[in-house]
Amino acid sequence: IYLNGVPVPFAPNATVDMTFFAEGSTRQIENPAGSGIFVTMEPDWIDPANAVNVGGSLKWPLIGGYLRVERRRSDGTWDAVTREMLELGFARGLSSPSAGVPNTVHPNAILILQMQADRDHNNAFNGPFESAAITGPGTQNNWFPSNLYDSREGEVRDGTSPGSSNTTCAIGGVMNLIEMDVGNLKRWLEGAIGTTGGSTDNATQNGYVVYFSDRRGMQFNGTRLKDGSYGFEDIINPTMVDDTPNRAMDPAEDVNQNGALDTYGIATLGDGFIKAAQGSNNANDNVITRVATEIARKNRVTGPRHALKLVNGGLGNVPVRAADTGGFTLGSENPVYVFGNFNANDSNFTGSHSSASIVADAVTVLSNNWSDLKSFLNPITPNQRDATTTYYRMAVAAGKNRSFPLPAWAPADDVGTDGGTHNFLRYVERWHDIYYSGSLVSLFNAEYAVGVYKCCTVVYGAPTRHYSFDADFLDPNKLPPGTPRFEEMVNLGYRQILSPE
């Protein structure tokens, strides 16, 4: 338990190596100094009912839940490395780490939980009450959660819905992220940072397998279980011209095929954004309820809208075994976002690389030009979320959407399809060229990222898809760790033996 901050010795220019977890506050500050006029430091924060009163101001955590990180030793036993991970760092600056964009806050962080607070979204710290200070007492309020807006999940129709605008976001599309710095994970596994990574097992699966699960916000599904799904399926509504859920079971809405129209997942969806939503499941928890973009990007995500974002995974940064053998597989029951070049550089697929794969509920690729901030400032205009050419090299096994009959409100003939193989990797930008080398495997329906395929007005602009199969996968020794293997016995013939034994 870190009551007085987490000691992160690699924080640059730090006088005190203590970084605090992000807190919201109703604290007021005199502005201008000496004027006798006090204003709220962050008016967009929404305080919860259980906020703690300290000195006349309320405070509350912006990042909730519990964290547990375990690793398998080379001798096959397991141990917890949560403290080690946190003390390598857990925060970043205004941009996610990538090639040429280092993490200037916690350079060795592997799991990134929060980002510096740019209150006026101008990518600088020159506004009122903004501070670049990252360590020491009084810095708890200098952070925001790492959120992004996923227009495929938030915008129910491929067109402007009633009340939609670039100043509001539908609460069903506000995703809270844990970012995993893939390059720093590799450094930890090689023993370059931390203390235990070098003795992690990499022989059992010819490399490293990472499993991720974030069940914050998930509700009991009626059987006293939290099963890893979103828990909201009222997503198609074929007779509704607008995007209002109709509370009736329509074809393909039963994504988990349990025979019921699940809607329990919205029970706490709006609690972090709307004061009136707190305390009970009411109309404010509707997935299409819209809130100001500034509220969406700065506050807690209280519903089952959590995901993993892979960052800094360019060529040479994805884990391998010694002598560049083996590779890296990520398994996640949550959606996964892949930011920037992954297992490749920004021009081609040549060079020493990892045998890599991602197995997840859904996989969305984000270009080198992606910005979480842009997703909030332009929730319904993909031409303001312009992608640049980006390369991805990994196998992907992920969920797709169930197909349904062409609805009355359909703006295009392919509405109701899953988008096909060429849309199996999901997009939320206006693309031009994307390069992918790997193998795409569709094994199941997505149950967490249930937003149906839609193109191309509010979610993305279709890219020129330079897709190819990675011939490395023809060699069993180059398959990603954890790849299922099947043995088949073929009876070619038989003969009868009559001699006694």
Could you list some keywords that capture this structure?
501 residues; mainly beta; 6-stranded mixed β-sheet; 5-stranded parallel β-sheet; 5 helices; 23% strand
Q: Give the overall form.
A: globular
- Indicate the structural class: mainly beta
Mean pLDDT: 93
**Strand content range:** 15-25%
Description:
The strands form nine sheets. Strands 11, 14, 16, 19, 21 and 23 form a six-stranded mixed β-sheet that branches. This protein has a five-stranded parallel β-sheet with strand order 17-20-22-25-27, with no helix packed on it. With 501 residues, it is mostly beta strands. It starts with 5 loop residues before the first strand and ends in a 32-residue tail after the last strand. The mean pLDDT is 93. 47% of the residues are buried. A hairpin with a 7-residue loop joins strand 4 and strand 5. The protein has helices at residues 82-87, 151-154, 182-189, 293-298, 372-377, and strands at 6-7, 18-19, 23-25, 28-30, 38-40, 52-54, 57-61, 70-72, 78-80, 91-92, 111-112, 114-116, 143-145, 147-149, 168-170, 174-181, 207-212, 290-292, 306-311, 327-332, 336-339, 355-360, 363-366, 390-393, 395-400, 433-438, 440-445, 464-469.
